[in-house]
Amino acid sequence: MMSPFLGEFIGTLLLVLLGDGVVANVLLNKSKGQSSGWMVIASGWAFAVMVGVFAAITFGSPDAHLNPAVTVWDAIVSGKTAKLAVYLPAQFLGAFIGATLVWLQYLPHWKETTDAGLKLACFSTGPAIRNVPANLISELIGTAVLLIGVGAIFSPAVTGKGLAGGLPPFLVGAVVWGIGLSLGGTTGYAINPARDLAPRIAHAILPIAGKGPSDWGYSWIPVVGPFLGAVVAGVLFKIVF
Predict the structure, then answer these.
(1) Alpha helix (H) ranges present in the chain?
(2) Is the pTM higher than 0.90?
(3) Which of 148, 124, 144 is nearest to 221 (CA)?
Protein backbone atom coordinates (compact mmCIF):
# COMPACT_ATOMS: atom_id res chain seq x y z
CA MET A 1 0.00 0.00 0.00
CA MET A 2 2.81 2.41 0.82
CA SER A 3 4.43 4.04 -2.20
CA PRO A 4 6.39 7.15 -3.20
CA PHE A 5 3.22 8.59 -4.76
CA LEU A 6 1.22 8.05 -1.57
CA GLY A 7 4.01 9.45 0.57
CA GLU A 8 4.30 12.64 -1.48
CA PHE A 9 0.50 12.96 -1.60
CA ILE A 10 -0.04 12.57 2.16
CA GLY A 11 2.98 14.67 3.06
CA THR A 12 2.00 17.57 0.81
CA LEU A 13 -1.62 17.33 1.95
CA LEU A 14 -0.55 17.77 5.58
CA LEU A 15 1.91 20.49 4.63
CA VAL A 16 -0.84 22.59 3.06
CA LEU A 17 -3.51 21.69 5.62
CA LEU A 18 -1.34 22.88 8.50
CA GLY A 19 0.37 25.69 6.56
CA ASP A 20 -2.71 27.28 5.03
CA GLY A 21 -4.52 26.38 8.23
CA VAL A 22 -2.28 28.62 10.33
CA VAL A 23 -2.85 31.48 7.90
CA ALA A 24 -6.61 31.01 8.20
CA ASN A 25 -6.29 30.88 11.98
CA VAL A 26 -4.53 34.26 12.00
CA LEU A 27 -6.56 36.06 9.32
CA LEU A 28 -10.17 34.92 9.53
CA ASN A 29 -12.69 36.69 11.73
CA LYS A 30 -13.73 35.09 15.02
CA SER A 31 -10.89 32.58 14.93
CA LYS A 32 -9.26 32.14 18.33
CA GLY A 33 -5.90 32.87 16.69
CA GLN A 34 -7.03 36.01 14.84
CA SER A 35 -4.39 38.77 14.59
CA SER A 36 -1.71 36.67 16.30
CA GLY A 37 0.79 37.78 13.67
CA TRP A 38 3.62 36.81 11.39
CA MET A 39 5.58 34.85 13.98
CA VAL A 40 2.64 32.45 14.36
CA ILE A 41 2.31 32.07 10.58
CA ALA A 42 6.04 31.47 10.04
CA SER A 43 6.17 29.01 12.95
CA GLY A 44 3.05 27.18 11.75
CA TRP A 45 4.52 26.73 8.28
CA ALA A 46 7.79 25.42 9.75
CA PHE A 47 5.93 22.80 11.79
CA ALA A 48 3.77 22.00 8.75
CA VAL A 49 6.91 21.14 6.77
CA MET A 50 8.24 19.01 9.62
CA VAL A 51 4.99 17.03 9.95
CA GLY A 52 4.70 16.68 6.18
CA VAL A 53 8.22 15.29 5.86
CA PHE A 54 7.71 12.76 8.65
CA ALA A 55 4.39 11.67 7.12
CA ALA A 56 5.79 11.38 3.59
CA ILE A 57 8.57 9.11 4.79
CA THR A 58 6.13 7.00 6.81
CA PHE A 59 3.76 6.54 3.86
CA GLY A 60 6.42 5.50 1.39
CA SER A 61 8.45 8.44 0.07
CA PRO A 62 11.93 8.41 1.62
CA ASP A 63 12.78 11.59 -0.31
CA ALA A 64 9.83 13.52 1.17
CA HIS A 65 10.16 16.37 -1.33
CA LEU A 66 6.63 17.81 -0.92
CA ASN A 67 7.61 20.49 -3.40
CA PRO A 68 8.03 20.37 -7.20
CA ALA A 69 10.97 22.77 -6.94
CA VAL A 70 12.76 20.30 -4.68
CA THR A 71 12.05 17.50 -7.16
CA VAL A 72 13.39 19.56 -10.06
CA TRP A 73 16.48 20.49 -8.03
CA ASP A 74 17.05 16.81 -7.22
CA ALA A 75 16.72 15.90 -10.91
CA ILE A 76 19.34 18.50 -11.85
CA VAL A 77 21.77 17.41 -9.14
CA SER A 78 21.30 13.65 -9.65
CA GLY A 79 20.79 13.70 -13.42
CA LYS A 80 17.77 11.40 -12.97
CA THR A 81 14.31 12.56 -14.03
CA ALA A 82 12.11 9.51 -13.35
CA LYS A 83 10.77 10.91 -10.06
CA LEU A 84 9.25 13.93 -11.77
CA ALA A 85 6.40 11.89 -13.27
CA VAL A 86 5.51 10.37 -9.88
CA TYR A 87 6.20 13.13 -7.38
CA LEU A 88 4.79 16.20 -9.14
CA PRO A 89 1.23 14.88 -9.65
CA ALA A 90 1.16 13.62 -6.06
CA GLN A 91 2.33 16.98 -4.74
CA PHE A 92 -0.20 19.04 -6.68
CA LEU A 93 -3.06 16.68 -5.81
CA GLY A 94 -2.09 16.59 -2.15
CA ALA A 95 -1.90 20.38 -2.01
CA PHE A 96 -5.37 20.68 -3.54
CA ILE A 97 -6.92 18.27 -1.04
CA GLY A 98 -5.08 19.95 1.83
CA ALA A 99 -6.49 23.34 0.81
CA THR A 100 -9.97 21.86 0.55
CA LEU A 101 -9.68 20.56 4.11
CA VAL A 102 -8.69 24.06 5.29
CA TRP A 103 -11.92 25.34 3.76
CA LEU A 104 -13.89 22.68 5.64
CA GLN A 105 -12.02 23.24 8.91
CA TYR A 106 -12.86 26.97 8.93
CA LEU A 107 -16.24 26.64 7.24
CA PRO A 108 -18.23 29.09 9.43
CA HIS A 109 -15.45 31.69 9.38
CA TRP A 110 -15.50 32.48 5.66
CA LYS A 111 -18.92 34.08 5.97
CA GLU A 112 -17.82 36.04 9.04
CA THR A 113 -14.83 37.51 7.16
CA THR A 114 -15.72 40.37 4.83
CA ASP A 115 -12.28 40.97 3.28
CA ALA A 116 -12.02 38.80 0.15
CA GLY A 117 -8.28 39.38 -0.01
CA LEU A 118 -7.79 37.79 3.40
CA LYS A 119 -9.72 34.74 2.24
CA LEU A 120 -7.48 34.35 -0.80
CA ALA A 121 -4.42 34.72 1.43
CA CYS A 122 -5.54 31.61 3.31
CA PHE A 123 -4.99 29.65 0.11
CA SER A 124 -2.22 31.31 -1.87
CA THR A 125 0.42 34.00 -1.64
CA GLY A 126 0.45 37.60 -2.80
CA PRO A 127 3.05 40.36 -2.81
CA ALA A 128 3.30 43.10 -0.21
CA ILE A 129 4.33 45.44 -3.05
CA ARG A 130 3.28 44.32 -6.53
CA ASN A 131 6.41 44.54 -8.66
CA VAL A 132 6.90 41.67 -11.09
CA PRO A 133 10.73 41.63 -11.31
CA ALA A 134 11.14 42.13 -7.55
CA ASN A 135 8.48 39.53 -6.71
CA LEU A 136 10.05 36.99 -9.07
CA ILE A 137 13.51 37.60 -7.59
CA SER A 138 12.13 37.20 -4.07
CA GLU A 139 10.67 33.79 -4.88
CA LEU A 140 13.86 32.77 -6.67
CA ILE A 141 16.07 33.76 -3.72
CA GLY A 142 13.79 32.19 -1.12
CA THR A 143 13.64 28.89 -2.98
CA ALA A 144 17.38 28.84 -3.64
CA VAL A 145 18.00 29.36 0.07
CA LEU A 146 15.61 26.52 0.87
CA LEU A 147 17.39 24.14 -1.49
CA ILE A 148 20.89 25.16 -0.46
CA GLY A 149 19.85 24.69 3.16
CA VAL A 150 18.24 21.30 2.55
CA GLY A 151 21.16 20.20 0.38
CA ALA A 152 23.58 21.20 3.12
CA ILE A 153 21.65 19.29 5.79
CA PHE A 154 21.86 16.09 3.74
CA SER A 155 25.39 16.66 2.40
CA PRO A 156 28.12 14.15 3.30
CA ALA A 157 30.00 16.91 5.10
CA VAL A 158 27.10 17.23 7.54
CA THR A 159 25.67 13.71 7.66
CA GLY A 160 29.19 12.37 8.06
CA LYS A 161 29.28 14.07 11.45
CA GLY A 162 26.42 11.83 12.51
CA LEU A 163 22.77 12.97 12.45
CA ALA A 164 20.11 11.16 14.46
CA GLY A 165 17.62 9.46 12.14
CA GLY A 166 14.67 11.68 13.07
CA LEU A 167 16.57 14.97 13.17
CA PRO A 168 16.63 16.07 9.49
CA PRO A 169 12.87 16.84 9.26
CA PHE A 170 13.23 19.17 12.25
CA LEU A 171 16.17 20.87 10.57
CA VAL A 172 14.31 21.27 7.26
CA GLY A 173 11.43 22.84 9.20
CA ALA A 174 13.94 25.21 10.80
CA VAL A 175 15.19 26.26 7.35
CA VAL A 176 11.62 27.10 6.30
CA TRP A 177 11.09 28.95 9.59
CA GLY A 178 14.19 31.04 8.93
CA ILE A 179 13.11 31.82 5.37
CA GLY A 180 9.68 32.90 6.58
CA LEU A 181 11.07 35.17 9.28
CA SER A 182 13.85 36.70 7.19
CA LEU A 183 12.65 36.67 3.57
CA GLY A 184 8.90 36.05 3.71
CA GLY A 185 7.69 39.61 4.06
CA THR A 186 7.93 40.43 0.36
CA THR A 187 5.78 37.78 -1.32
CA GLY A 188 4.67 35.47 1.48
CA TYR A 189 7.41 32.97 0.51
CA ALA A 190 5.53 30.43 -1.57
CA ILE A 191 8.87 28.73 -2.44
CA ASN A 192 6.76 25.79 -3.64
CA PRO A 193 4.71 25.76 -6.87
CA ALA A 194 2.30 23.08 -5.60
CA ARG A 195 1.71 24.90 -2.32
CA ASP A 196 0.55 28.01 -4.18
CA LEU A 197 -1.03 26.89 -7.46
CA ALA A 198 -3.13 23.96 -6.24
CA PRO A 199 -4.71 25.90 -3.33
CA ARG A 200 -5.34 28.81 -5.70
CA ILE A 201 -7.26 26.43 -7.94
CA ALA A 202 -9.15 25.21 -4.87
CA HIS A 203 -10.01 28.83 -4.03
CA ALA A 204 -11.36 29.32 -7.53
CA ILE A 205 -13.46 26.14 -7.46
CA LEU A 206 -14.75 25.90 -3.89
CA PRO A 207 -17.99 27.66 -2.83
CA ILE A 208 -16.21 29.96 -0.36
CA ALA A 209 -18.64 32.47 1.08
CA GLY A 210 -17.92 36.00 -0.16
CA LYS A 211 -14.73 35.14 -2.01
CA GLY A 212 -13.26 37.41 -4.64
CA PRO A 213 -11.04 36.69 -7.65
CA SER A 214 -8.13 34.27 -7.37
CA ASP A 215 -5.54 36.76 -8.70
CA TRP A 216 -4.49 34.71 -11.70
CA GLY A 217 -2.42 37.61 -12.98
CA TYR A 218 0.05 37.01 -10.17
CA SER A 219 -0.26 33.23 -10.05
CA TRP A 220 2.65 32.48 -12.38
CA ILE A 221 5.24 34.17 -10.14
CA PRO A 222 5.06 31.67 -7.22
CA VAL A 223 5.35 28.91 -9.82
CA VAL A 224 8.10 30.23 -12.09
CA GLY A 225 10.14 31.87 -9.31
CA PRO A 226 10.60 28.66 -7.30
CA PHE A 227 11.46 26.66 -10.42
CA LEU A 228 14.11 29.26 -11.32
CA GLY A 229 15.43 29.03 -7.75
CA ALA A 230 15.63 25.26 -8.18
CA VAL A 231 17.69 25.66 -11.35
CA VAL A 232 20.07 28.14 -9.69
CA ALA A 233 20.58 25.93 -6.63
CA GLY A 234 20.86 22.81 -8.78
CA VAL A 235 23.55 24.30 -11.01
CA LEU A 236 25.43 25.53 -7.93
CA PHE A 237 25.48 22.04 -6.44
CA LYS A 238 26.55 20.52 -9.77
CA ILE A 239 29.45 22.96 -9.99
CA VAL A 240 30.59 22.50 -6.40
CA PHE A 241 30.01 18.77 -6.04
Answers:
(1) 4-27, 38-58, 68-78, 82-105, 107-112, 116-121, 132-153, 156-159, 167-183, 193-205, 221-240
(2) yes
(3) 124
Enumerate long-range contacts of 85-88, CB under 8 Å, 24 or more apart. 86/4, 86/5, 86/8, 87/4, 87/5, 87/8, 87/61, 87/63, 88/194
SS3 241: coil
Over residues 196-219, the pLDDT tens digits come to 999 999 999 999 999 999 999 999
Q: How many CB atoms lie within 10 A of CB 240?
A: 8
Q: Which domains does the chain have, with CATH numbers?
A: 4-240 (1.20.1080.10)
What percentage of the chain exceeds 70 in pLDDT? 97
**What pLDDT is stored for residue 33 in this prediction?**
98
Task: Give the tens place of pLDDT for each residue, 61-76.
Answer: 999 999 999 999 999 9
Rounded CA separation 103/16 (Å)? 11
Burial grade of 133 (CB within 10 A; 0-12, 13-18, 19 or more): exposed
The whole-chain average pLDDT of the chain stands at: 96
Query: What average pLDDT does the segment 230-240 reach?
Result: 95
Residue among 60, 14, 147 at smallest CA distance from 139: 147
